[in-house]
Design a protein that fits this description.
heterodimer, A: about 270 residues, mainly alpha, MetI-like fold, B: about 350 residues, alpha+beta, OB fold (Dihydrolipoamide Acetyltransferase, E2P), 6-stranded mixed beta sheet, 8 helices, 20 strands, about 25% helix, binds adenosine-5'-triphosphate, binds magnesium ion
Chain lengths: ~270, ~350
């Protein structure tokens, strides 16, 4: 038998281990972004070093990186906003209405995620080319939407189903129209699900590399594309790559932190009983 | 025409018929209670009146208009749900004013009416709280507040007190009765608690398995139950039933015989008797109409089992020779030793007879 303090210590040690394992790459990226090239390549690695913001100044001056981040922001924000705007009403319908073909529609949404993205890359490229959409924000927004919409719909449908149906009935008796019910009951009470799906959508759109590489050229390079573009040539500018990486991770983290405040449980507490 | 009229209502879920040709009416200002065992269709019936459930057959009239296919919102009815169904993300004030806001009522008017409802229900100090910060009884009041603030034509209550503890329940029962008296509105109230039914109702509708068993005032149902189901359902403790055999039928009277009865018992009948001598029928005796001793014109010889004292009254459990258990409700504290012989007297005018099909004779 392990005594309680010992068990707690083991628990804590386990947590620290997992935390360190998860956070070390970030630590490495962030710390490297403040080292100059000499310190970066030192072996054994230098744990203590003179920090420098040289690389940040460099990417700030580099039109390509700032433009890429702006592009990424445009694409990710638009995709997320559209996915939530279109996905939540669909989820409400799937959660609460009976209509013909409902389960087929449901399966169709899931099936969109069963295809490996690479399979579609070439057809989508040809399609975009013939529509004259290559190298535009719109093409990325549209293709990301096809990946994100199903996620928003699933998560929100599930969330909306957990809302007691009496709430909707009560609202209807009180004179609420269809849209009022959605806007004043389902959306606020389904906020945790909406938040989770928005985070997924944002992260996906922000990190996506394959389609961004295939469908864009010079004008609409997104951040991941810009970051990989440093990896050509003979010398790898590690400091710049790490600084770019840090800058790329920052918006997602901030977005996730803000939105996750809505991911609280027990929102429907007090409705019944 | 009645204020509310349900005409030949049928409700089917798939193949199952849960409401079977029900006719019910309610006058303006009346308090009508639906009672019946769990699953008999009380909620379904109420939800059809509200418009939350479609009617499979039949028609519903409210205030002179056929509302069978009218949208719930257009019927001007309010409903207090069994689960309260408060909006958890809104304050008490916003919960109560929801319907008024939907109707685009001016702000001052909303505040005035909410304040009025809060005063009636004594929840003025809670208006800024969220439902999760309220006790069960307070949530109940908020749900009622949401219902009364719009001045609806009809109030529907679906077992509003079933989640409360006994004390709060009787307190709220009194408040609902007061509310009905003060507002003078028509209320339809669903419960499976016959005490609530007896105390609140102007008229009780007893339902069983989707059919109406009897409709009448509380006194009607207590004194003149149409059948054995209503007789057993109304009254607490439950009516005692003894299987007796018919010795003679004589015009408007039936004479019955039972080994525990000191003498054959002749009872007047309410309807022309449909029984033959030799047939088995059921004798119904309410526990509160039985007394210990030979008092009363008729008398049963019983063997004691045990007694339960409730303070002011005691319930005595005793058996007949062939093992039928009867309950006697007697005043004061009284003990009963197992096997002790007791005599239970009663007045034949307070005895009931039911034929083999359970209909009152
Ligand atoms: N949506 C539905 N689909 C199928 N059957 C249903 C549905 N709603 C209710 N029923 C059935 O209809 C019958 C009546 O249900 P109802 O809820 O009206 O009973 P009740 O009298 O209110 O019972 P309780 O006292 O337990 O609330 C039950 O047998 C129930 O199983
Ligand atoms: Mg019910």
């Amino acid at each position: 038998m392990v005594s309680r303090p010992a068990a707690r210590f083991a628990h804590l040690a386990g947590l620290v281990l997992v935390f360190a394992f998860a956070m070390f790459p970030f630590y490495w990226m962030v710390s490297s972004s403040f080292k100059d090239q000499g310190d970066l390549l030192a072996s054994p690695p230098m744990w203590l070093f003179e920090p420098t913001i040289k690389h940040y100044a460099e990417i700030w001056a580099d039109q390509k990186v700032t433009a890429a981040i702006v592009n990424s922001l445009i694409v990710a924000v638009s995709t997320t906003a559209l996915a939530v705007l279109l996905g939540t009403p669909a989820a409400y319908a799937l959660a609460r209405f009976e209509f013909r073909g409902k389960s087929d529609l449901w399966f169709w949404f899931i099936s969109n995620r069963m295809i490996s993205p690479i399979v579609l890359a070439l057809p989508v490229y040809l399609l975009a080319q013939s529509l004259g959409l290559l190298d535009t924000h719109l093409v990325l927004i549209l293709i990301y939407l096809t990946f994100n919409l199903p996620i928003v719909v699933w998560i929100c449908t599930d969330q909306f189903r957990s809302i007691p149906p009496e709430l909707e009935q009560a609202a209807r008796l009180e004179g609420a129209k269809q849209f009022d019910v959605f806007w004043r009951i389902y959306l606020p009470l389904g906020l945790p699900g909406v938040a989770v799906s928005a985070i997924f959508s944002f992260i996906f759109s922000w990190n996506e590399l394959l389609y961004a590489l295939v469908l864009t050229r010079r004008n609409v390079q997104t951040a991941p594309v810009a970051a990989t573009s440093f990896m050509s040539g003979y010398e790898l500018p590690w400091g710049k790559i790490m600084a770019t990486g840090t800058v790329i991770v920052l918006p997602v983290t901030i977005f996730a932190l803000i939105v996750s405040r809505h991911m609280i449980r027990g929102l429907t507490m007090g409705a019944t009983k | 025409m009645s204020f509310l009229k349900l005409e030949q209502i049928v409700k089917r879920f798939g193949d199952a018929t849960v409401i079977d040709h029900v006719d019910i009416t309610a006058e303006r200002g009346e308090f009508v209670v639906f009672v019946g065992p769990s699953g008999c269709g009380k909620s379904t019936l109420l939800r059809m009146v509200a418009g939350l459930e479609e009617v499979s057959e039949g028609a519903i009239y409210l205030d002179g208009a056929n509302v069978t296919d009218t949208e719930p919102a257009a019927r001007q009815v309010s409903m207090v749900f069994q689960s309260y169904a408060l909006f958890p993300h809104m304050s008490v004030h916003d919960n109560i004013s929801f319907g008024l806001r939907m109707a685009k009522t001016p702000r001052e008017e909303i505040d005035r009416r909410v304040a009025e409802a809060a005063r009636i229900l004594q929840i003025e100090s809670l208006l800024q709280r969220k439902p999760r910060q309220l006790s069960g009884g307070q949530r109940q009041r908020v749900a009622i507040g949401r219902a009364i603030v719009r001045n609806p034509k009809l109030f529907l209550f679906d077992e509003p007190l079933s989640n409360l503890d006994a004390e709060l329940r009787s307190q709220m029962r009194v408040e609902i009765a007061r509310l009905h008296r003060d507002l003078g509105v028509t209320m339809v109230y669903v419960t499976h608690d016959q005490v609530e039914a007896m105390t609140l109702a102007d008229r009780i509708v007893v339902l069983r398995a989707g059919r109406v068993e009897q409709i009448g005032s509380p006194a009607d149902l207590y004194e003149r139950p149409d059948n054995i189901f209503v007789a057993g359902f109304i009254g607490s403790p439950k009516m005692n039933f003894l299987k007796v055999s018919v010795a003679a039928v004589n015009g408007g009277a039936v004479t019955v015989r039972h080994p525990a009865l000191a003498a054959d018992l002749t009872l007047p009948t309410r309807h022309a008797p449909r029984v033959e001598p030799g047939e088995d029928v059921v004798l119904g005796l309410r526990p509160e109409h039985l007394s210990v001793g030979d008092g009363g014109a008729a008398c049963l010889a019983l063997r004691g089992e045990f007694a339960e004292s409730l303070g002011a009254t005691s319930q005595l459990y005793a058996q007949t020779g062939n093992g039928e258990t009867l309950i006697l409700q007697v005043p004061g504290r009284r003990s009963l030793a197992p096997g002790e012989g007791i005599r239970a007297g009663f007045d034949p005018a307070q005895a009931y007879l039911f034929d083999g099909a359970g209909r009152a004779i």
